[in-house]
Structures are given as structure tokens and as C-alpha cells.
Structure to design on (279 residues):
DNA sequence: CACGAACCCTGGCTGC
DNA sequence: TGCAGCCAGGGTTCGT
């Protein structure tokens, strides 16, 4: 379930390995993930230098020195494993689809058992306009993203707020987990109509989104160091969630004794919430 | 246009 | 123990 914080953590980890480095060997172990790799993908990467590693929504972007960018998505189960220079090179596993070696001798492996991920090449000049990225909404951690911007993004919607938060056009990078967690933090029912998310309620939801994302990034960043000393895997981490996956547990909110986390299905997705605390 | 459902895929879990 | 069946979910596509 890589969402914005997990992708951010992956980018931070990869920036230290890739930025300023030249890719000296690239191996593809299959022709496609969710979509085919571009023609000549491995050859086009080989010899290129990565000038910057960035994130937009749930996509990572590696800017290359030839004006192109590797743009990728972790899908459901995508992870990167980093083998530092000089370490034993692990034999590629069944789901190790892309293996890249840098001129420093590091090995970066993209692993994705369910193959919902993708990796492609886009000209840097088209990163804002390419169909894959053009319609994505504001970054939730941008200072300019506030209640008014959320309200604007929800304009015209009549359905419940929770599925709307999963729409990348409304706000970028939110997935099922952090949508649930932010609504819980804000005390807002996932069933509340988008048209009632206004004013202070919208501001509260925005503040909750920023808080849960920032805490997850901080947690991912700290567990990253521990993790890398073990096997260097960059992916997503076990956070302790207040409501996600906790159906039947007592509500962790202190001001609603007797509340229980319940699970409902909205737009085909599980929603976890406390009906007492969230209105 | 907005929204929901099906679909892609495999590992892990449940229940017989 | 083994196996069928279901579930997880991000994004795309299709139908309403």
C-alpha cells in the first residue's frame, strides 16, 4: 500500500544512491509491468546520469542528464532494494523485474510481486502535461494547500468525502489508509457529503491530512535507517494506524468511550472509522 | 460530468 | 494437509 509517505521515503532513500551517479548496467527481467517498458528502456538508461530524484503524488521521478525522466509507480507491492557498493550481490529473485548498477557499484533492484507498478520514460518538459501526470491535484504537503483549495477540489461532487479523497484529482498521493486515518484524526465521518466539507471542517481535514502524512514520513525516515542496516530494502513500513485494519477494536479516541472501529465498504473499498467520534 | 464497478495481478489467509 | 476461493488495492477503462 505505498501511498505518498512511502513513495517519499523511497525517493529519499534512492536520492542518496542515484543522484549524481551514472547508471552503468540496467537489466530487465520481463517486458512489462502494468504497462510495457518503453522500447529500448534498458539501453536508454545505460550510461545516463541521474541528476535528481523527485516525487509527484505517488510517482517517483528520476531526472536524467539527457532531458528525459524515469517515472515510476510502486503499485500495490512495489519495493526497491539497495545493495551498497561492495556488498554481496543477491541473486535476482522471482519478482525482481529491474536491476540497475551505478558507477559507484550500488545495485538498485525493483521488486513487485503483483506487478501493479510501472516504470517508463517521459521527457522532463512533459512532466506537467503528460496524460499520466497532468490531471493530478495539489500536493497535500504544499504550503498553498489549505481548506479553501480542498473545497475547490471537491466542487461539483455530491458523494461521500472518503472516496473523493482517493481521487488523485482532488488531492495527490492519498490512498485508502491515509484517507481513513485523516478522517479519523479530523473527527469527520467518511460518509459525510463532499458538499458539507467547507469552512473550518475543511481546514480541519487538511490539517489532519498534513499531520498523518508528516508523521508517516518521519516514521518511515527513521525506520529506513534501521531497515537498511538489515537488508537495505526501500518500500513501505509498518506504521501503527489508529483505525485502518482495526475493525472491532475499541476506538483509540479518548473522548468517545464505548466507541468501536467499524468497517464499511465505499466505492468497493474498505473504510475503517468510529461512528461515535467521527460525525 | 460524476461515480461506481470490473479489471489487472499474486501472496496470504480462510474454510472446507 | 491440500486446495479452492476470496481479499487486498492504485489506476485505468468502461458503463450508467
Amino acid at each position: 500500500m505505498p501511498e505518498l509517505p512511502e513513495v517519499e521515503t523511497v525517493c529519499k532513500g534512492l536520492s542518496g544512491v542515484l543522484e549524481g551517479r551514472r547508471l552503468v548496467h540496467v537489466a530487465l527481467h520481463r517486458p512489462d509491468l502494468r504497462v510495457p517498458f518503453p522500447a529500448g528502456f534498458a539501453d536508454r538508461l545505460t550510461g545516463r546520469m541521474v541528476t535528481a530524484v523527485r516525487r509527484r503524488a505517488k510517482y517517483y521521478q528520476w531526472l536524467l542528464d539527457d532531458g528525459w525522466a524515469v517515472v515510476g509507480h510502486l503499485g500495490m507491492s512495489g519495493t526497491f532494494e539497495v545493495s551498497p557498493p561492495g556488498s554481496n550481490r543477491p541473486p535476482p529473485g522471482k519478482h525482481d523485474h529491474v536491476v540497475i548498477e551505478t558507477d559507484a557499484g550500488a545495485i538498485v533492484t525493483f521488486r513487485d510481486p503483483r506487478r501493479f507498478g510501472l516504470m517508463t520514460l517521459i521527457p522532463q518538459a512533459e512532466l506537467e502535461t503528460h496524460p499520466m501526470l497532468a490531471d493530478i491535484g495539489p500536493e497535500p504537503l504544499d504550503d498553498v494547500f489549505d481548506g479553501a483549495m480542498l473545497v475547490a477540489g471537491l466542487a461539483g461532487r455530491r458523494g461521500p468525502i472518503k472516496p473523493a479523497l482517493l481521487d488523485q484529482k482532488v488531492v495527490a498521493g492519498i490512498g485508502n489508509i491515509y484517507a481513513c486515518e485523516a478522517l479519523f484524526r479530523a473527527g469527520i465521518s467518511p460518509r459525510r457529503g463532499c458538499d458539507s466539507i467547507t469552512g473550518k471542517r475543511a481546514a480541519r481535514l487538511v490539517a489532519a491530512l498534513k499531520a498523518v502524512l508528516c508523521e508517516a514520513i518521519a516514521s518511515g525516515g527513521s525506520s529506513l535507517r534501521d531497515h537498511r542496516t538489515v537488508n537495505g530494502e526501500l518500500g513501505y513500513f509498518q506504521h501503527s494506524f489508529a483505525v485502518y485494519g482495526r475493525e472491532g477494536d475499541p476506538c483509540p479516541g479518548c473522548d468517545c468511550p464505548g466507541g468501536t472501529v467499524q468497517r464499511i465498504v465505499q466505492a468497493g473499498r474498505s473504510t475503517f472509522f468510529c461512528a461515535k467520534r467521527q460525525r
User: Anything to note?
Assistant: The CA atoms of residues 5 and 213 of chain A lie 6 Å apart. Residues 34, 75-77, 95, 112-116, 156-159, 163, 167, 267-268 of chain A lie near DNA strand B (CB under 10 Å from a C1'). Residues 225-231 of chain A have pLDDT under 50 and may be disordered.
